[in-house]
Specification:
Length: 132
Amino acid sequence: MGPKEPKPTKREIDAVLAQLEKLDVPPVDYSQRCLTDGSPITSDHKEIDPITKQQKDYIVLTADERAKGFVRPVRDTYTHKKCNSDTTMGRAIAETYAREPKFYSGTFCCSCQQHFPLDEFVWKGTEEILGT
């Protein structure tokens, strides 16, 4: 008997699954967008709420567009590298990242209470930068 094969890590499994998912996923239709609650996009969605410091609402791919498949695992928590704090996003935003990782150019840090470029964040428990 030879040596035992090491068990793959969750990260390695996620990477393989993401590659397999890419094989059967149709291209994203960027015209299929809405706000997180499924309503049409409004001109004031980027207004900042004075209490939460977040936008009034965020644009996502529609539920039908997200249902076509993902090219990355659906993850909802990320870490801000500068302050080492975690932020958890809603399901529609998480699925939009999984369907099209480059959909967003920045995201919000709940600890800093500001939006920053994606390269300042990694998915929790990984070194993978958001949007890659």
